[in-house]
Description:
- The chain is flat.
- It has one domain (4-109): N-(1-d-carboxylethyl)-l-norvaline Dehydrogenase, domain 2.
- It has 113 residues and is mainly α.
- The two termini are 33 Å apart.
- The protein is 67% helix and 0% strand.
Amino acid sequence: MRHSLSMRGEAGKAIGIGTIASFVGGTIGVLIMAFMAPQITNAVDGDANKLGFSIANARKDLGYYSNMVDGLDVPSFISPATRHALTLAVAQGYGDKDVPVMVDFFEYAFKPA
């Protein structure tokens, strides 16, 4: 996949923008989760099992991210592989299961014959 910056010979700039954006976004996400954890816990009466996030929902949300990145003409190194893994899990019937079950899916998918 070639992007407009790399086609203009500015691949390093594109990688830099993608890396910085990923770092900033990840840092902001961690800070929000750190500050919101007590409120989230109270919202579900202390039962972390009520915080389910399905594999199908993760795939949908990653699709939004992929569309955004594609619209910015910057590379995304994790999105295609992660979306593919989530798509495979949904196709194998894991879509309604929570994201941590991806570990079970990978064990099933890559089990030696």
